[in-house]
Structures are given as C-alpha cells and as structure tokens.
Amino acid sequence: MRKAEISRKTSETDISIGIELDGKGVANISTGVGFFDHMLTAFTKHGNFDLTVKATGDLIVDDHHLIEDTGIVLGQVLAEALGNKAGIARFGEARIPMDEALATVALDLGGRSYLVIDADFKAPKVGEFSTQMVDHFFEAVAQNAKINMHAHVYGDNDHHKIEALFKAFAYALRRAVVVEGDEIKSTKGVL
After folding, report:
1. φ, ψ (nearest 5 deg) of residue 124
2. Which residue range is the domain that position 34 belongs to?
3. What's the mean per-residue pLDDT of the chain?
4. What residues contact 94, with CB distance under 8 A and at least 6 apart?
5. Rounded mean pLDDT of 156-179?
6. Taking the complete model, does pTM exceed 0.90, yes or no?
7. In what order do the strands lie in the sheet with 3-9?
8. Handedness of CA 34, 32, 44, 156 (dihedral sign)
9. Which whole-number Å values give the CA distances from 53 to 17, 38, 102, 158, 163, in the listed order?
10. How many domains would you assign to the chain?
C-alpha cells in the first residue's frame, strides 16, 4: 500500500496529513477554512485518494500560514507515499471544465520541482479563503513533492476557477501515480 502520514508543528500552525494513493476517495478534512476544506475534499474525491487533514493555525492573523503549511505537508506526504516511484506512469494531465471555467494541469513526478501557474482572480477572497493563496498552495505542494506542474485556468467565477484547478490537479496526479510496471521511468534510473 502506498500511504504515508506526516505531522508538522510550528509556532503558527499544527498540521497532520495522511494519504493513501490507492484509496477510494474518502476525505476527512478539517482546516478551519471552509472553502479550503471544500477544495481538499474535491481533490480527494476526484483523485480517488484517501486523505485526512487536521490543521489548525493562526487564522486570527489570516489564512496564509495555515494554507501554506498545509501545502508543505501535503507535498511531503505525497513524496513519502510515492517512495522511489518505481513503476509509476510519472506524467499526468487533465482538462476540467466547471461551467464557464476551464482548468488545465500537466505534471511530471520526475523529482524536480517547478510551478508555472496562470490564474487570475477578481475577488480577494472566496469565503474565508484568500484567492492569492491558490498560487502559494500549489507552489508549496510542488516544491515539497518535487513536482513539475503547469496549470492554467480561465473563467469568470473565482469559485469555479479554483475548484476546476483543484479537480484538474487531482485527475492529473491520479494519472501520474498509476502503477504501470516495476521500472523507474527515467533514463537516469532514478526519479
């Protein structure tokens, strides 16, 4: 079974995340930021992962530390669950529509982190979730899981755009973690 659990506690946040890559889409999410819970639940369901997130933090300041640190730990737990990545498809992509919005995500689990994201939002927040944290969350995940990810979204409704991005990330990641054999897909022999 490809699963992992990691906890990280700082003076600003206390985050515990567990993931099973070969799950059934079961989510147990609690961050204190309703829209963020909704996005992580959508990621779980559409990626068909089992995900537990227990996160508390200094929300009295704002949502920045909590969302960033959740991205850090999610990236770390993904990296641990993947192990040496033997047999995985490595690459994944998805195009997900949500009404007028369309998100595209392409990623490589090749061991080098890089994020290119093209996402503009009209409002500063969706619920209590700061829209500027979308880029920052995905940057934290990509850096800590060593994912090369390109993401693009367009549309009019910020809720739709963000949700389409999280779902596209889920589908692309699901495709990249599929086990296709036992060899490491790299001419270098390691990922």
Report:
1. -75, -20
2. 3-177
3. 97
4. 104, 105, 167, 168, 169, 170, 171, 172, 175
5. 98
6. yes
7. 3-9, 13-20, 50-57, 27-30
8. positive
9. 5, 12, 27, 24, 18
10. 1
CA-to-CA dists, residue 177 to 79, 82, 86, 168, angstroms: 11, 8, 10, 14
Name the pLDDT band for 1 (thresholds 50, 70, 90): confident
Helix axes 133-145, 158-177, angle to 10 degrees: 10
The dihedral built from the CA positions of residue 49, 175, 155 and 67, taken in this order, carries a sign that is positive
Amino acid at 185: K
Distances (CA, A) of 110 to 87, 123, 140: 12, 35, 17
For residue 45 the two structure tokens come to 């369901």
Indicate whether 13 belongs to any domain. yes
Q: Quick check: 189 pLDDT over 90?
A: no
- Over residues 73-130, the pLDDT tens digits come to 999 999 999 999 999 999 999 999 999 999 999 999 999 999 999 999 999 999 999 9
Structure tokens at 96: 């997900």
Whether 182 is in a domain gets the answer: no
Q: Could you tell me the CATH number of the domain that includes residue 143?
A: 3.30.230.40
For the record, the structure tokens of 51 come out as 């995900």
